[in-house]
Amino acid sequence: MYSEKVMDHFSNPRNVGEVENANAAGQVGNPKCGDIMKMTMRIEGGRIEDVKFKTFGCGAAVATSSMATELVKGHTIEEALSLTNKAVAEALDGLPPVKLHCSVLAEEAIKSAIADYYRRQGIDPTPIVGCDVDCAHCHG
Amino acid sequence: MFVYADHAATAPLSKRALSAMLPFLEGGYGNASSVYAIARDARRALEAARKITAEALGAKPEEIYFTGGGTESDNWALRGVCEAKKDKGRHIVTTAIEHHAVLHTAEYLKKQGYDVTFLPVDKLGRVTPEQVEKALRTDTILVSVMAANNEIGVLEPIAEIGALCRAKGVLFHTDAVQAVGHVPLDLSAMEVDLLSLAGHKFGGPKGVGALYIRRGLRIPPLLYGGGHERGLRSGTENVAGLMGMAEALREAVENREEKNKRLTALRDKLIEGLSRIPYSFLTGDTENRLPGNVSFVFECVEGESMVLGLDLAGVCASSGSACSSGSLDPSHVLLAIGLPHEVAHGSLRLTLGEENTPEEVDYLIETVAGVVTRARSMSPLWDAATQTPTERFWGPGSLK
To answer: What residues in A contact B340, CB-CB < 8 Å?
Structure first.
């Protein structure tokens, strides 16, 4: 059911852990639903110098987190924001239909971390990032 | 090392079952309904299989109807009784932890205008005869309670529930797919009206099963056609498969005590080993439990990733997490025993069989511990520094 790339990123996940001196952090998902992704980043001069993830979830959740960090590491914020869940899934040679939400979560985790970065700078992230699905932030 | 620890999903075909099947795969292809010699051989074999199956269950041969498996037997029992007794009433009683073959059939019947009571279970997964008694109404036509649960291995008090139903004049069906061949079941000493079984759960082949229908009880067929199985289950009989099932059942019953002694020891060793993993808990009942069933939850870990991780180490296991089932919710059984969603996602089921060894159990303990440790090291719900969950959703006392 999983592609070899998914299995590779599941068994040898890239960029696991938490970035030291991170200046951006985002967490999405819900333990009730069975998946949570947390991404931490060090952003310097508009570029994601380092990114790491921690994920509680199924094989696809781990693999999409790993792939998403690979796809944004070393890239600019703009490039990272243009990353779609579809691109993450495609980079993994596809995901079973029931697992596509994992790739959505990976895209959202990146956006959530970048939104946090802007907030820490005193900048309202909404016009730049759009909805970062940090619902508690908007709705208390 | 390769360790098969998913016997509740399906068990390997026993050698004796294979030997019983081969003559009907290699040469004896006659249709048991035809008149010539090779067909008569097939008919004889079929009736021998029926006799063996009946003897193993303490039933009479004419009470055994062969089917295409456990799911068909469950469908037939529920839908058949509902149709046969619809003039008496339209209420059925079952439990929240039944296999989907019963649950989804009950839900279908609900849509057809039947009223269904799904009894809750306690934290160990048990339902009591008192609960059943309270649920009975004047229009109750059927009670269906599983003999053993496929996920947490809990054994239900079906003898007591059967006796109660008989006293109240209500038909009693039990889905015994996980129990037959594994725990003592003597229908001659029990008040059971219908019982479902499936061949591949005790060393027989897949795609064959049976429904026991107590003598004197008539239900309409599920499948119409050429009138096989005394007009109640049409379709050319799978003689090879049924021979395999009957032989596997005979073998399972012959060796049950000795096998269970060994299996229970292996199971308890595995439970003890896995209990040493912090924040891990056995689900189900320690006393009333299938001899090969070990079901656990590991906090802060998701089940499907455990199953995948174990697969990479050569271990076959299963989980009741949402991601394993392909739905959004974790197993209905784990939710029914009171686990919160967050914890139910961390379930792992290891089910042992006859061929498993103590060395394999050691390997299982070591491998599960490794997989859990690795998953926790990447989990945002786990604090690596203190080796504790960052948030507790549940405590070990919750299931006591």
So the answer is: 32
